[in-house]
Known about the structure:
With about 375 residues, the chain is α/β, with parallel strands linked by helices. The chain has 14 helices and 13 strands.
Amino acid sequence: MTPSPELLIVGLTVFNLLYLFFVLALTDYFFSxxxxxxxxxxxxxxxxxxxxxxxxxxxxxxxxxxxxxxxPCTQVIFVVGEPHDPAIPVxxxxxxxxxxxxxxxxxxxxxxxxNEKVSNLEAGYQRAxxxxxxxxxxxxxxxxxxxxxxxxPLADHRIGLITCLPFYRDSRNVPAALETVGVNSNILSMxxxxxxxxxxNYGTGATLAIRRSMLxxxxxxxxxxxxxxxxxxxxxxxxxxxxxxYLSPYILHTIHHEDSxxxxxxxxxxxxxxxxxxAPVAYTSFVFFFGTFYSFLYWILNLKNIWAFLFFIFVSxxxxxxxxxxxxxxxxxxxxxQYLWLVPxxxxxxxxxxxxGFAGLxxxxxxxxxxxxxxxxxxxxx
Length: 382
């Protein structure tokens, strides 16, 4: 006997709710077990490489935080691809304000492939003095204890790569807040189960900490020079060589003050199409996790049924409460607390964004347009 569409919708919603509670338990377990992993006395010299293109929100503060680490020996390398990049005056001020830090500004037009960020990473890597390397995106804010917390697991040579999750913060308008609550309410459910179940196959641009010997064994940045997601590609290469990717519990923040509706659309579209190209099976499976949308659809199909409406309210309220809990316990972003009412709104938009991920192969990144090719590679088209 084939179940009715309404029964299927309710079943998917209940499944999604159960999964959310499962993730809640895993998240608390993850943060409680992971805080003291690694020998804190392991603190080898580190070269940090930050690829830069254009200006980001809070850029000056982001860079100063990287240059003032409470860590014995660090080299900080900022890399831009053009001599007239608007970020250069900011970088000059950072260097001036951190005279005791070992900072290098590299301006390089070298291109090793289509992915401009990877070309910048390679240019910085060529100037790195130390054998423990950290690659970090320019829009990330860290604390002074960042290196002391993320580096110790690399003492275990079974671990080939360390990565962190970026949580958004400090949104000041609705388009930015939609992205913030979307990331902050969903990213834990995407990565923590994967890590705890031993299926962590990807890195994130928020942090890639790796030994020089490992990066060279992978073939260096030339191996990912055309990748749509270099961080994910590096993670896949590490796993193929039989090494573990360690997901650090260290909380990082992407500073995201304001956005336009167009910026929100193109950013989420790029995410959708990137994830689809890198992990097509996982992306397709997202259809099972649109619980808020399914509860809304059930209500629309039963507009005169008060229980259908209350079911939708219960599911939406559950998502809001869980997001508030994660924020209060771990993320600590005031703007997420302010915009909690947008959690169900974003949850209703996600299925549309997911469908648009199937509707084309073009993306935009920092003013350029690309086409995603087979093998999760990109080709510049404008």
